[in-house]
């Protein structure tokens, strides 16, 4: 198996078919809706809040609200009142079952529910998928996180409509250091490995450090890309603003960090400071422009054209050119 990651793969250009990058369409259909970008901010407390969720939903972007210190039913109701789609997160504990039951009983429902636990290849996830499908049969269920083809196959067979791939590649992740497990350091090839068996969309989660990594994720099978650190640190980001030597930063911490959990137990995340980087809308616009450029280098007009390009692996055992035959 080839082992590579975002920083040692480059995609190879094909003859340009557009006169302007503005002709390149970055939109994606996901769960019955069309979004401007195949990108979703990570469902983390320092990445998005209710206001950002509203902004994204109202402006044609996918979002997944986090599930920490939040009444997800009240959140869903407020989104509904504004005529916006509802996309929430769920764990697998009794309180999470109660949220699903209330969404059903109170007629609020949810358009998307993302079950995100650290080790998503688990019977607890199977039971939660079954519960959501029973109570809210119209809801599009995303399940994760996983890092192997076996797990993708199981989650799909258990009823998930999409799977989320990435164990430990995140910037504030310490899973691989604490447990010795994960896809950190080879996330892109893990994505390729999982995508080979997937029959439903995959969300590539974690490890994106540059906008070009979005095109690479799509090339290797992602329908959607979940991003934390690149979205943390905006003026609107919920993390606290911190000043160090006259420079402004925003805090960004892991959902499995003691900062998020409120206690030091099963900690698999840390806290870092992200330099303050302006407005979210500007980053989204730049991401779209960069992805339009990516599509043009692929000799295409749509995201699907990114899947057709060859690539090179730089350095290491797997170095070389990889041609599509
Ligand atoms: N993508 C990634 O690499 C990772 C992401 N995270 C994120 O951190 C947040 C908190 O995650 P998590 O602690 O799972 O959520 P929860 O605190 O909601 O726990 C979910 C349930 O899964 C159990 N659980 C968690 N990890 C394992 C495991 N390795 N083996 C068996 N059971 C497990 C927990 O029990 P108990 O605590 O008693 O074991 C609990 O019952 C989530 O948003 C998750 O996505 C966390 C770690 C890795
Ligand atoms: N191992 C851990 N992973 C975590 C934690 N909190 C979030 N995450 C994952 O990271 C991505 C975001 O990654 P980034 O590289 O874009 O910053 C996020 O979507 C989660 O899957 C954690 O505490 N531990």
TrEMBL record:
Residues bound to NADP(+): 202-225
Highest rank taxon of the organism: Bacteria
This protein's UniProt keywords: NADP, Oxidoreductase
Name of the gene this protein is made from: guaC
HAMAP family referenced in this protein's UniProt entry, alphabetically: GMP_reduct_type2 (MF_01511)
Protein name according to UniProt: GMP reductase
An annotated GO BP: purine nucleotide metabolic process
Domain IMP dehydrogenase/GMP reductase: 5-309
Residues spanning the membrane: none
Similarity comment text for this entry: Belongs to the IMPDH/GMPR family. GuaC type 2 subfamily.
Organism, as annotated: Tepidimonas fonticaldi
GO molecular function: GMP reductase activity
Catalytic activity: IMP + NH4(+) + NADP(+) = GMP + NADPH + 2 H(+)
């Amino acid at each position: 198996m080839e082992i590579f990651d975002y920083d040692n793969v480059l995609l190879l250009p094909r003859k340009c078919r557009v006169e302007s990058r503005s002709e390149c369409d970055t939109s994606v259909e996901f769960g019955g809706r069309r979004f401007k970008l195949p990108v979703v901010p990570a469902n983390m407390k320092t990445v998005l809040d209710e206001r950002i969720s509203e902004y994204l939903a109202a402006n044609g972007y996918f979002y997944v609200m986090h599930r920490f210190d939040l009444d997800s039913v009240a959140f869903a109701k407020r989104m509904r009142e504004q005529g916006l789609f509802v996309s929430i997160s769920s764990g697998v504990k009794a309180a999470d079952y109660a949220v699903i039951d209330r969404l059903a009983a109170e007629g609020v429902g949810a358009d998307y529910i993302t079950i995100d636990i650290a080790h998503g290849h688990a019977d607890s996830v199977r039971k939660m998928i079954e519960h959501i499908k029973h109570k809210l049969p119209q809801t599009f269920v995303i399940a994760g996180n996983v890092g192997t083809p076996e797990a993708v196959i199981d989650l799909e067979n258990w009823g998930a409509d999409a799977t989320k791939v990435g164990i430990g590649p995140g910037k504030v992740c310490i899973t691989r250091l604490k447990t010795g497990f994960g896809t950190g350091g080879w996330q892109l090839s893990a994505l390729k490995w999982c995508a080979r068996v997937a029959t439903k969309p995959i969300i590539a989660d974690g490890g994106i450090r540059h906008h070009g990594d979005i095109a690479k994720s799509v090339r290797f099978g992602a329908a959607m890309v979940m991003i934390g650190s690149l979205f943390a640190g905006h003026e609107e980001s919920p993390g606290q603003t911190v000043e160090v030597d006259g420079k402004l930063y925003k805090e960004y911490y892991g959902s499995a960090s003691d900062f998020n959990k409120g206690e030091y137990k099963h900690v698999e995340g840390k806290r870092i400071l992200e330099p303050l980087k302006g407005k979210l809308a500007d980053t989204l616009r730049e991401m779209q422009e960069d992805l339009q450029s990516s599509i043009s280098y692929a000799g295409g007009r749509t995201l699907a054209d990114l899947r057709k390009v060859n690539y090179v692996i730089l350095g290491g055992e797997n170095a070389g050119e990889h041609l599509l035959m």
